[in-house]
Amino acid sequence: MARLEGKRAIITGAGSGIGRASAIAFAAEGARILVVDRDEAAAAETAARIGEQAVALAADAGCEDQVRGMVAAAVDRWGGLDILYANAGVGGGLVPFLEQSVELWQETLRVNLIGPFLAIKHAAPHMVAAGRGAIVCTASVAGLRANAAGSPYSASKAGVISLVQTAANALHGTGVRVNAICPGLIETGMTRPMFEAARARGSEGRIGQVNPTLRAGAPEEIAAMALFLASDEASYVTGQAIAVDGGLSSTLPFKRQYP
Ligand SMILES: NC(=O)c1ccc[n+]([C@@H]2O[C@H](COP(=O)([O-])OP(=O)(O)OC[C@H]3O[C@@H](n4cnc5c(N)ncnc54)[C@H](O)[C@@H]3O)[C@@H](O)[C@H]2O)c1
Hints:
By secondary structure, the chain is of the alpha/beta class. The chain has a single domain (8-243), classed as NAD(P)-binding Rossmann-like Domain (Rossmann fold), CATH 3.40.50.720. It contains seven helices and seven strands; from the N terminus they run E-H-E-H-E-H-E-H-E-H-E-H-H-E. Helix 1 packs across helix 7 and helix 3 (64-78) runs parallel beside helix 4 (102-130). The protein is globular, with a radius of gyration of 18 Å. The N and C termini lie far apart (43 Å). The model has no long low-confidence stretch (mean pLDDT 97). The structure holds nicotinamide-adenine-dinucleotide. Nicotinamide-adenine-dinucleotide is lined by residues 12-13, 15-19, 37-39, 42, 60-62, 87-90, 111, 138, 140, 183, 185-186, 188-191. Nicotinamide-adenine-dinucleotide binds next to helix 1.
């Protein structure tokens, strides 16, 4: 039997990168997917690549009315919801610390942290009523350590790590699990400018050199963890933030001495 046979899933930020790879991976394992993205054409493209198991919906993952509507769309269509992957996020740019505005912080936290909170708030009651459900959020290694991104982004992702801990415990005894993934550097729409700049400089061989795998990751490598956490294989995993980062977060700053 396929790993997500018969499951009904919402994935936000599924118009690109990690979300799209996850939608494709979940569907390949038998799930039906509500492909949510604020970019309507991108969501439609993901759904078209999957076919009849997927439906696209344009929604802003940081807006409560739209998140409520997103959950209602899935429940109305399928009669319930088994999996929520709150993955949508924004990078927040690399504005120098002392020049960061309140507006930049508010928008980054709205999408990256309040968004997953709203998704859990509106999806979990349906899962609690069914006595089972799996919620996955995308955090980041930036939520574990400094220097992977700007301060608002890092704080938002540290918040997601805390959110999955508090939500998993708030939902104790309900059968609903809540976990996060902390990706390292993955080539997606969010990071593409950095990869393209490195290729233009001829320095792409240096990308990922500070982690033990000596490379960046692919969206499919994050989707593989999302699939595991969303599946019944992870039935005893909750309240965790799991790094999928080529070992980046396992190290201190260092100079490599041996091959
Ligand atoms: N790429 C990396 O290296 C990396 C590392 C760690 C964490 N992440 C996280 O992974 C998640 C997915 O990002 P990605 O790397 O695939 O980037 P991406 O830009 O390729 O995909 C993000 C998608 O989210 C959508 N989105 C943004 N804001 C939204 C909103 N308010 N409502 C609905 N959709 C919205 C975008 O339109 C886009 O399609 C994000 O949470 C990101 O912070 C990425």
